[in-house]
Structures are given as structure tokens and as C-alpha cells.
Amino acid sequence: MMANYNNPLPGVPPVESPLFDELLGHGQLDGETYRIARDLHDTGFAIFDFPDPELAEISAGIRADLGPRFDLEAWRDGRIGSPRIQDAWKFNRDVRRIATNEPVRQLLSRLYGREAFPFQSLSFPVGTQQHAHTDSVHFSSMPERFMCGVWVALEDVGLDQGPLLYYPGSHKWPIYTNEHIGHVHMKKGDTLQDVYEPVWDRLVAAQGLQPVRFEAKAGQALIWVANLLHGGDWHADRSKTRWSQVTHYYFEDCCYYTPMNSDGPFGSIQFREPYNILTGEPVKNRYKGVRIPETYVASTNPEIVAEFWRKNADRFDHAAYLKAHPDVAASGLDALDHYLRHGLSEGRKLGIVA
Predict the structure, then answer these.
(1) CATH 2.40.110.10, applies to 14-295
(2) Which pTM does this prediction carry?
């Protein structure tokens, strides 16, 4: 269900576009859809009733199946962090039913101007207590912002149960990636979001933003856009649960990647091939209807590049590498060994570039 209006900024989701009123206003949406769109545009989130009349039964089924898989006593004693199950849709039909809800998918497709597809589910028995963050460093797209999340309360959630918290308006910030915070993923190993947390905290303080906490009723849901700063509050009463499900959505005709594990200047991009939960098949990276060549995707992954040269050492031009890098030649180190241990992560060329 692609949008049929004339959009001069097709690389910006209509719901976040500076042309929002022209694209989604003026009677183009019914009242409730417009209210959701307006909230997303203005604040970065929107609350609505999840459109499944059997959600109470679905919730009971999820608790019965997933409950025994969690060690909540260890969590209550502080021996483990907040537990979750990723992609329970693969074995639980109730989780899958929430993730593939067609009215929600159609709503998102309308607001984003591209077909939405669910690619990940997260099932929670308790609050996450996760530091406020934006999903844009974890899940991003080219063009950017074609990703969102939907959280569904499977029981009533009070302030002592680790409710969601979020910062209205923070979605309007630029999307800050490694290049903006002076971080180089390839030189540091696996990147965790904690390298971004200081700048998020500073931005909140500088702009005087205050968090909002979602006291949800069972069956209520919340959509948030990709760059909204959100997290989980402290779960104060550990005798209580906080059953909920998150479904993450991407949109068709995009490239999908993980910014915090990418270093564009070094040619390193951690592309994703997200699964479309509806089809069970991976979605290939595309741009303006054209599929991105698999050879290019592979060439941007340092692990794939390193594995290639390990298997094809006889094709590595040692002389060209040493000529291009006199410091390596002077060190007496083996050219291929240096490239695999250091040169690849440093973005060094394989030889002289004309």
C-alpha cells in the first residue's frame, strides 16, 4: 500500500517530513489516524488501543508459554539483569500474531509512505531498566528514519513496574553516529550504546527535556519513531511483572544497517538483511528499487574481507602493499599479516592507488 500523493521528499518519512501538513493533513486521514500521525510528528510517539479484540487471550497464551523460560527469582534477587526473549515469534504463534497485526502494518505503511514489515520481536516479563537511547544507532536505514517500534502492554503497568519513559521532541535531533561522537568502531571492538549515553544525557540537560512515563492499561500500545530517546524506568516493585511486547518495523526499498558498528570513512558498513516476519524470508538491501549488489555488501564487512584474504593469501600483492605503506616495509612485518591485524581496521589500501 504505497502512498499515492506527490511527495517531493520521498527519502523522508511523511510522518516526520517538514511537509507533514501537505502530505498527511487537509482531510487525507481519518480522525484517529490523523491524531496518531500528528502525535508522532510533534512528539515522536503516539498511544493507541492495539487493534485485536482477543488481545487478553493472546496475552494469557504468551505468559503461559514464555513464563517458565524466565528465571524471575534470580532477577528479583539481583543475580541477573532484566530478561527478555528476542524473536519468540519463531516458536510462539501469539507473539507472531501481535507482530504481524495487519491494521498496525497498514497504519505504519500509510504514515511512512512505504510498505512496513515487522522484522524483530522482543518479549519482556519485567521492565528493561534500560538507559534512554535512540533506536537509530541500533537499527537504521538509508534513507534514514524508515524504522519504528510498537510496544504493547500485556497487563496494566504502573509507575513501580518499570514503565516506558521517553523524551518528547527528542526525535527531532539529528541522528548522531560514530563520526559525530569521535568513536571508531573498527579500532575499539564491538560497540555498545554506552559510548553514546553521555551525549544523550548532555542533550537532555542542555534542552531541558523532561521524561514522560507511560502508565499503560493492558491492551494499550505505543508507537515511537526511530530517533526518539526512550528507555525503561526503574522496576521498583519486583513482586510485580511487566509483561509486554515490542515489535520493530522496517520499510521496503531501503538499505538496512547498524550505525554503531559501522565506520563509513573506512568503507565499513554493517549491513543487515532483516527477516520479514510475515514471509519468514530475509529482505535484501535496495535503493530506489534497485538491489544493492551482494559483492558490495560483502566488501563493506571487515570480517568477510579478512576471511577472503585468509582463504586467498596467494592472491595478496605483498609488494604493492609494502610500496603503499613504507612504514610497514620498514618494520619488517609480513604484509598480509599486518593487513589482517592492523591495516584492515585502519582503512589502509591494498596497494598504490593511481
Answers:
(1) no
(2) 0.89
